[in-house]
Amino acid sequence: MADLNPGPRRRGRPRKASSSDARAAITAAASAEFAEKGYDKTSLRGIARRAQVDSALVHHYFESKAGLFAEVVKLPVRPDHIVRSALDVSDDRLGESLVHTVLSAWEHSNVKSIGVTILRSAVSDSAAGRLIRQFLLRDLKGAVARRIEDIGVDSAEADLRATLVLTQMAGALMFRHVLELEPLASMSVDDLTARLAPAVQGHLDGVGGSN
């Protein structure tokens, strides 16, 4: 475990550390930064300064702020990776891909267990809830919005469509796994995808909107 309270060091010079020490120091620093500043205002540079390591190490071990957040809250999967892989399809299959990929991920017991905790926290007014909401809005909704912009939609409209998609998906997960509302809770992933995908595709395409 890294020494998170080191003695005086020359200002601006990161300490040298073993790989395990560096990872532990970065994770501890990230946990403190997220708790103090929230997800939006936390930066990888700030985490590196707090951990007294070179900022390149943060990128090397964790790739991005989303990756570091997933490590801190002990997520068994990377939500940003799941969403990005789901978006890597043709425009007309985006809805089906998003719904099926996300629902399938939640079929794993470890994902469901932590996911339910996260959903419950996200709707609370706690510091953890605010942190999770910021992560969902910045990284997950942002990824969907950018994919919609790729179709040729302006940023404001893309943000609205992405918000509607996130609302649809979060509602489905909440009623299926947290409230366990039947028959939603017992439907197969394929059957539920067939029902939800057209609605999500409609949000992505802006069906019913002004554009």
UniProtKB/TrEMBL annotation:
Record GO terms (molecular function): DNA-binding transcription factor activity; transcription cis-regulatory region binding
Record-linked Pfam families: TetR_C_16, TetR_N
Domain HTH tetR-type: 20-80
Renumbered residue ranges of the record's region Disordered: 1-23
Keyword tags: DNA-binding
DNA-binding region: 43-62
Protein name, entry field: TetR family transcriptional regulator
Organism: Brevibacterium epidermidis
